[in-house]
Structures
1.
Amino acid sequence: MTSKPLSVSFTIVILTLSTTFSLQSDQQKVLLVSFDGFRWDYLYKVPTPHFHDLLTHGVHVKQVTNIFITKTYPNHYTLVTGLFAENHGIVANDMFDPVLNKSFSLDHMNIYDSEFWEEAIPIWITNQKAGHATGSAMWPGADVKIHKSFPTHYMPYNESVSFEERVAKIIEWFTSEEPINLGLLYWEDPDDMGHQLGPDNPLMGPVISDIDRKLGYLIQRLKEAKLWDVVNLIVTSDHGMTQCSKERVIELDQYLDRDHYTLIDQSPVAAILPKEGKLDEVYEALADAHPNLTVYKKEEIPERWHYKYNKRIQPVVAVADEGWYILQNKSDEFLLGNHGYDNALAEMHPIFLAHGPAFRKNFTKEAMNSTDLYPLLCHLLNITALPHNGSLSNVQDLLSSAVPKAIAYTQSTTLLGGDHLGELGQEESYPYFLGVSLGCIIVIVFFVIFIKHLIHSQLPALQDMQAEITQPLLQA
Ligand SMILES: [Zn+2]
């Protein structure tokens, strides 16, 4: 063997190894923050200097299409799984599972039954299986045991714990001896005040200013801990908020006999479980009942909502028009602001900003889907994404050129059967596996060739040496 093929093999080995290791070095630290109910345009209601700082020095997506229904638990689970509600199984804040014969209710904090969460695997489990650590400061659902696992560090949900205490925990986990690479931070406002006041109320101004101050506090603490330049901070939310009015109430008692159904979830998407044999009667009684109410049998629910193929979606679903409120009786609790409506409505859309070494500077993007965040997070953390409904290629332009671009495959967002995820996802995993395998094969082949070459080139010298050793013996 001549030295030319040898040097070619050597170059290929170096190139393969460097590609493999450059993919591995693509790992970043990520802090995902959710300010519950922060509508995309709250940014412009009052001066929000800290949000605008992020916007100028990072990336901003104007319209994020979240998932239907635009409620808290379904959307927070989407952010960490990349799945539509029908696929991750958290289809509402209030649910009934007819197979488990169990209820789930945010109102009563009856949410800790693992079985409700186990149709999906949240990102912290995948992150930890890859050998990393995660920390959650009150992220919805992250204090539930899911597939026998919790985040490496987590705070059990307690709404009385201050924002500052939550931030302190996040900083502690990022700077510990075995630091986390993924932090999740949740804060209840401006959702709480948005419900009470309504988003159009001028008193929402101070509420938004307060959230801006909280963001400023977080940035300050990250800077003091020397994390600001190394952590990729993503600030988003689960949904927006729309103004309601007592003039826009749809009262179910006017159209339905309470003995004929159970109301599982109320407004603005009423989940109705008719009593046995009453399905058609309930459906027909509601179908033309009110001009601002659209009623679907489960199988008629529009495909674009990806809200059909799950046993927890009830046989009849009634959806109110934006700003309309569904109550059984007008004496029931009414809120001036609400969300949960059609996810095509801009007022339901959340904010999305990001800043850090992986992101471009001063870059604005028109639109993305909230399901796209999950593959983006997996890419940043250099972990293999599980099957999901998002697409890394939709959001890859948010990343700075300094970050080696992983190979992105456009995902099909075809409607999936609830329990049959098909073969979505696996972005990066296949090319990565292929790269590593090829690298190993080339290394083995190279060494075999190298050793053979070495033996051949050393053979004449060995023969000479043997001749030198044997000659004196012969002479003797
Ligand atoms: Zn919420």
2.
Amino acid sequence: MTTLTLFLAIAVVRSWNVHQLDVKSAFLHGDITKEVYMKFPKRYAPPLHIPNTVYGLKKSLYGLKQASRQWFSNHTDSLTTQGYVSSQVDHSLFYKTVDTNYTCVLMYVDDLVLGGNDLTKINHLKQLFYSSFSIKDMGPLKFFFGIEIATNSSGIHLSQYTLEILEKVEFLLSKPVTTPMDYKIHLTSQHSDPYPAPNFYKRLLENSYTSPLPDQTLALPLNK
Ligand SMILES: *[C@@H]1O[C@H](CO)[C@@H](O)[C@H](O)[C@H]1NC(C)=O
Ligand SMILES: *[C@@H]1O[C@H](CO)[C@@H](O)[C@H](O)[C@H]1NC(C)=O
Ligand SMILES: *[C@@H]1O[C@H](CO)[C@@H](O)[C@H](O)[C@H]1NC(C)=O
């Protein structure tokens, strides 16, 4: 995530275009290079039931250990063919420099973030991905990993749609107080009595992501 934060910081300073692509079922796109067999899922009857049969996979499947590697290498291959270099520091970052033009691709699971000062190259990259994957162009980067990203002339504003969460748990009218979180706290399940009204707490947890940005960690109230 440090890469994304740094990437956005540079994008602001250099006034880059930052676009986002969403890859539909990214993990289903890789072709399988090794023989992988599976049992037929219990809930579905195989077309022709022969006891003790396993099935050979022709395509990658969601949840398959090889799946994310397949997707990653397929993607890497397409990019390196186009002259992109994978960063030594973060392998999810690919970049290409031509004269003063800089284009880079950040890949997080099935989200792709494209950035740079050459819009033609960015559109070219989109075409490249369109041709091999089922892709949705999300346009300028607005939402990433549960973080809302708003760009204006003064910079990029990251927020964790906290207001939405507060509205969902009917906490919007509460008075805000500064509650610094004790980040060294050590919690155990035997530590104290179980929380008497866990539903509210569960709803809060469901709605708040474990933030990839450590400085946005939420301290959740327990005393409702
Ligand atoms: C990536 O996957 C797509 C769809 O399965 C396939 O058409 C394409 O040839 C693959 N590309 C590479 C470089 O493996
Ligand atoms: C650099 O980017 C600009 C803006 O898209 C483009 O007009 C120019 O041709 C690019 N230069 C090179 C060398 O690709
Ligand atoms: C940019 O957005 C931030 C956060 O929403 C806001 O505080 C600031 O006034 C905006 N600046 C401009 C120039 O619109």
